[in-house]
Amino acid sequence: MIIFRFPKKLTKMDEKKQKRKDALSLFIESVHKPDHELRQDAHDQKCYNELMEWRQIVLDYLYERQNSEF
Questions:
Q1: Contact 27, 69 (CB under 8 A)
Q2: CA dist 67 to 15, 42, 58, Å?
Q3: Full-model pTM
Q4: Mean pLDDT in residue range 59-70
Q5: Which among 67, 65, 63 has a CA at the least distance from the CA of 29?
Q6: Are the beta carbons of 25 and 1 closer than 8 angstroms?
Q7: How far apart are CA 51 and CA 38, in angstroms?
Q8: pLDDT greater than 80 at residue 6
Q9: Region for 46 from its dihedrals, namely left if φ exceeds 0, alpha if ψ lies in -120 to 50, beta otherwise
Q10: CA distance 29 to 34
Q11: Which residues are within 8 A (CB) of 45 and not within 5 positions of it... i.e. 6 or more apart?
């Protein structure tokens, strides 16, 4: 016998939370994604290492928020 289960209907709050979670994941992905033009600008301005330091600070913060909120 096959039992079909319908997916649980999400409440408005659940939908909002899922959208926030998805958006945060996309934002984290965008920070990870290399931006070659930006990195070249940082090399030209001789601040590449500092740019990568800021990148890491932002990622640390985003992961902290992700862990505390979800």
A1: no
A2: 18, 30, 14
A3: 0.76
A4: 95
A5: 63
A6: no
A7: 9
A8: no
A9: left
A10: 10
A11: none
